[in-house]
Amino acid sequence: MAELLKKPVHHPLAEGVEIIQDFKPSDVDLEYTGIKVIDLKAAATFSESTNDYEACVVALTGQIDVSDGNDKYEGLGTRDSVFEKVPTDSIYISKAHEIVITAQRDARVVICYSPCEQERATQLIPAAENSVEDRGKYSNKRHVHNILPDSHTASEKLLVVEVYTDQGNWSSYPPHKHDVDNLPHESFLEEIYYHEMDPPQGFVFQRVYTDDKSLDETMAVEHSDVVIVPKGYHPVAVPDGYNGYYLNVMAGPQKVWKFHNQKDHEWIIDRK
Predict the structure, then answer these.
(1) Record keywords: Cell inner membrane included (predicted)?
(2) How far apart are CA 206 and CA 217, in angstroms?
(3) Is the pTM here over 0.85, yes or no?
(4) In the 3-class helix/strand/coil scheme, how is the chain assigned residue by residue?
(5) Is the peptide bond before 199 cis (omega within 30 degrees of 0)?
(6) Residue range 99-145, pLDDT digits in tens
(7) Are 258 and 178 in contact (CB under 8 A)?
């Protein structure tokens, strides 16, 4: 198994609560990014302290209530499958809070993490506030929901985005990277990909590699897998017959997304 590829664990935590993926930064040799994916049966509850992390709770599917230890936000979630391709509700919760999530109906929840320095106000990010865009052309098309882009002021370091790539298309392409702290030319952001497939027995290919090939891994990625991107380029290819979805978690010393395209392949952007 590739070192950067993490398979779902399906670990029962409590009645009606199952952990699918669970990584804090130190678990995967990162400094800034972590992720947890949880399945909740209707009426089940999951709780944890944010400690020194800021978190973005994404109601991936189903419907949930979320408390930050002070206020409660009810009825979050807009879809039963990510492949409905409609934005969903999320909530930003800072350090030193207690997160309590209760499912109104069966739900899958993603919690995105990054260490933070200052406590901030909790902020609801409703589906209607996601900016939606289409990127690319030819077989490099993808559909994007920006949940927590670098322009959003709620978080200190976290960026969160959903990306849909239809069958036969490429994504995160041409290959780009953001692993050098050299603003305004390039920012340093670690990244985690959480993947889903439609139909779920499908797979995509993802390559993570650096210019000197000291890191070079190509992975067959399946439903509910996570791919860790500590550095380097990280394109995704989706085979015929299947559609791909991924949720990106990014964070670094500065909340700026400024990437660098691999020069050998940058020409495809301007082709007629």
Answers:
(1) no
(2) 8
(3) yes
(4) CCCCEECCCCEEEECCEEEEEEECHHHHCCCCCEEEEEEECCCCEEEEECCCEEEEEEEEEEEEEEECCCCEEEEECCCCCHHHCCCCCEEEECCCCEEEEEEEEEEEEEEEEEECCCCCCCEEECHHHCEEEEECCCCCCEEEEEEECCCCCCCCCCEEEEEEECCCCEECCCCEECEEEECCCEEECEEEEEEEEECCCCEEEEEEECCCCCCEEEEEEECCCEEEECCCECCEECCCCCEEEEEEEEECCCCCCCCEECHHHHHHHHCC
(5) yes
(6) 999 999 999 999 999 999 999 999 999 999 999 999 999 999 999 99
(7) yes
Distance of CA 234 to the CA centre of its chain: 14
Please give the structure tokens belonging to residue 231. 């550095």
- Is 159 exposed, middle or buried (CB count within 10 Å of its CB: 0-12, 13-18, 19+)? buried
Q: Beta strand 226-229 with 131-135: parallel, antiparallel or unpaired?
A: unpaired
Instruction: Check if the beta carbon of residue 258 is closer than 8 Å to that of residue 187.
Output: yes
Region 34-50: what's the mean pLDDT?
98
